[in-house]
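Minutes, structural biology subgroup

Action item carried over from last meeting: produce the C-alpha coordinate record for Large ribosomal subunit protein bL20c (Rhodomonas salina). EB confirmed the sequence was re-checked against the source entry. Recorded below for completeness.
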Amino acid sequence: MPRIKRGNVAVKRRKKILKRAKGFRGTHSKLFRVANQQVMKALRYAYVGRKRKKREFRSLWITRINAAARLNGTKYSSVIHSLKESKIAINRKMLAQMAVADPDSFVKVLSSAKAS
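Output recorded by EB:
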Protein backbone atom coordinates (compact mmCIF):
# COMPACT_ATOMS: atom_id res chain seq x y z
CA MET A 1 0.00 0.00 0.00
CA PRO A 2 1.53 3.34 -1.03
CA ARG A 3 2.04 6.04 1.54
CA ILE A 4 -0.19 9.08 1.50
CA LYS A 5 1.59 12.27 0.60
CA ARG A 6 -0.16 15.41 1.79
CA GLY A 7 2.72 17.83 1.85
CA ASN A 8 1.17 20.11 -0.74
CA VAL A 9 -2.09 20.38 1.23
CA ALA A 10 -0.27 21.28 4.44
CA VAL A 11 1.90 23.82 2.62
CA LYS A 12 -1.17 25.45 1.05
CA ARG A 13 -2.88 25.66 4.42
CA ARG A 14 0.17 27.27 6.04
CA LYS A 15 0.66 29.68 3.15
CA LYS A 16 -2.98 30.74 3.43
CA ILE A 17 -2.58 31.55 7.12
CA LEU A 18 0.73 33.37 6.60
CA LYS A 19 -0.82 35.38 3.78
CA ARG A 20 -3.62 36.48 6.11
CA ALA A 21 -1.02 37.40 8.76
CA LYS A 22 0.79 39.74 6.39
CA GLY A 23 1.40 43.08 8.05
CA PHE A 24 1.41 41.70 11.59
CA ARG A 25 4.49 42.63 13.61
CA GLY A 26 7.46 40.38 14.28
CA THR A 27 6.99 36.63 14.44
CA HIS A 28 3.23 37.11 14.27
CA SER A 29 3.64 37.23 10.51
CA LYS A 30 6.57 34.83 10.12
CA LEU A 31 6.04 31.71 12.24
CA PHE A 32 3.05 29.54 11.45
CA ARG A 33 1.93 28.67 14.99
CA VAL A 34 2.02 32.23 16.25
CA ALA A 35 0.56 33.56 13.01
CA ASN A 36 -2.29 31.06 13.21
CA GLN A 37 -3.19 32.22 16.72
CA GLN A 38 -3.01 35.87 15.71
CA VAL A 39 -5.11 35.32 12.58
CA MET A 40 -7.80 33.56 14.63
CA LYS A 41 -7.74 36.43 17.14
CA ALA A 42 -7.90 39.00 14.35
CA LEU A 43 -10.89 37.23 12.80
CA ARG A 44 -12.68 37.31 16.15
CA TYR A 45 -11.97 41.03 16.49
CA ALA A 46 -13.17 41.61 12.93
CA TYR A 47 -16.44 39.78 13.64
CA VAL A 48 -17.07 41.77 16.81
CA GLY A 49 -16.04 44.97 15.06
CA ARG A 50 -18.65 44.50 12.36
CA LYS A 51 -21.33 44.28 15.05
CA ARG A 52 -19.98 47.26 17.01
CA LYS A 53 -19.80 49.40 13.88
CA LYS A 54 -23.58 49.22 13.51
CA ARG A 55 -24.08 50.23 17.16
CA GLU A 56 -21.65 53.13 16.95
CA PHE A 57 -23.11 54.54 13.75
CA ARG A 58 -26.64 54.39 15.15
CA SER A 59 -25.56 56.31 18.24
CA LEU A 60 -23.78 58.86 16.03
CA TRP A 61 -26.94 59.38 13.97
CA ILE A 62 -29.01 59.80 17.13
CA THR A 63 -26.54 62.37 18.47
CA ARG A 64 -26.66 64.35 15.23
CA ILE A 65 -30.45 64.28 15.07
CA ASN A 66 -30.65 65.37 18.71
CA ALA A 67 -28.25 68.27 18.11
CA ALA A 68 -30.22 69.46 15.08
CA ALA A 69 -33.52 69.02 16.92
CA ARG A 70 -32.31 71.09 19.88
CA LEU A 71 -31.27 73.87 17.49
CA ASN A 72 -34.92 73.91 16.43
CA GLY A 73 -36.27 73.92 19.98
CA THR A 74 -37.25 70.28 20.42
CA LYS A 75 -35.76 67.00 21.62
CA TYR A 76 -34.75 63.81 19.83
CA SER A 77 -37.41 61.71 21.52
CA SER A 78 -40.20 64.09 20.58
CA VAL A 79 -38.93 64.24 16.99
CA ILE A 80 -39.02 60.45 16.65
CA HIS A 81 -42.40 60.30 18.37
CA SER A 82 -43.94 62.92 16.08
CA LEU A 83 -42.50 61.18 13.00
CA LYS A 84 -44.05 57.88 14.07
CA GLU A 85 -47.39 59.54 14.90
CA SER A 86 -47.56 61.22 11.49
CA LYS A 87 -46.48 57.97 9.76
CA ILE A 88 -43.42 59.53 8.14
CA ALA A 89 -41.14 56.56 7.43
CA ILE A 90 -37.63 57.99 7.36
CA ASN A 91 -34.76 56.24 9.08
CA ARG A 92 -32.23 57.75 11.47
CA LYS A 93 -29.41 57.57 8.95
CA MET A 94 -31.30 59.74 6.46
CA LEU A 95 -32.47 62.13 9.17
CA ALA A 96 -28.90 62.60 10.39
CA GLN A 97 -27.70 63.13 6.82
CA MET A 98 -30.37 65.77 6.28
CA ALA A 99 -29.54 67.45 9.59
CA VAL A 100 -25.89 67.81 8.59
CA ALA A 101 -26.05 68.41 4.84
CA ASP A 102 -29.41 70.15 4.36
CA PRO A 103 -30.77 71.70 7.58
CA ASP A 104 -33.62 73.45 5.73
CA SER A 105 -35.17 70.18 4.60
CA PHE A 106 -34.69 68.79 8.12
CA VAL A 107 -36.73 71.71 9.47
CA LYS A 108 -39.42 71.04 6.85
CA VAL A 109 -39.63 67.39 7.90
CA LEU A 110 -39.90 68.46 11.55
CA SER A 111 -42.66 70.94 10.79
CA SER A 112 -44.62 68.45 8.69
CA ALA A 113 -44.30 65.87 11.47
CA LYS A 114 -45.55 68.35 14.07
CA ALA A 115 -48.41 69.49 11.83
CA SER A 116 -49.76 65.97 11.34
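Discussion: DSSP finds five helices and no strands in the chain.
Next step: EB to file the record with the rest of the batch.
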